[in-house]
Design brief:
Length: about 325
Amino acid sequence: MSLEEVAKRSGVSTATVSRVLNGVDVVKHSTRSRVMTAITELKYHPNLHARSLAGGRSRTIGVIVSNLDNPFFLDVYRAVESDCHAQGYEVLVANTAYKSEQLVASIRLMIGRRVAGLAAIVSEMEHDIVEELTESRIPIVFYDVGTAGGNITKIRVNYRKGVERIVEYLAALGHEQLAFIGHHAVLAPLDERRQALFDTVKLVCPHASVRVAADSDSLEGGRQAVRELLTSGPAPTAIICVNDLMAVGALKELRERGLRVPEDVSVTGFDNIKLSEFCYPALTTVHIPRDRIGHTSFTSLAQGDADSAGALGKEFVFDPEFVVRDSTGAARK
């Protein structure tokens, strides 16, 4: 099925069909409806790869994330996807599971597909990969890694500010027996939260103790980390989790062991995913603006669009917001 047949069926020119497919607003609603009806009846599928070659510019955005099972990454991807659909772009997504070799393979695949831009929302980035992408000519967005400039936009969150708010709040509630639950401690963006925790504890409550446990970035990982803490020593009065996903798993394990939250143990998360509001008890956490991260990624990559001009090559820093809910309370006596 060809573009010419769609034009003939709908009684318009091929140029008008192209404008409809590209989402151009100058086409009248009645004309657009006729074209879309013809496309449906003829089961027409445009050759997007050929169209990008003919136009000299790709209409595909690539997004690579570390863990699509974690709603944090899924929310960022959905924001990019929404902008792509609104502006007539395709979007490709790849999941690395925190594996550097998978990250390299995904980057090479997307560059081979001639994406218009690439957003790397990952924690496992290595220097050689950053260097390779910096030397490429396509627009790149890095999250938490790399340096802004040229074809590179960097987006980062002031994690330290969020961790400071958590520690200060728990210290005010009398907590001195703390624990930190994390995952992939060797990855710099994640280790940053752990280090910020120790630095803040030293300043705010120097007499407090901090134990550390780690497992996978998952609900089950949160459960396993709590098991490790409880089998290696007494229950802390507060558990600070690297993200909400692990915190929800921690809540379940504490509940099944007969420990009350927050009466026996307070629990905090990080990210403020939707689940944190609906779990029981609702989770005290730190809000990360995932929609803004996604929208900023798109506008930095879609350099052909007027509203994206000037975004590429900059660094964007987002401050988190502390959200107090029911999972924290005064330290047990």
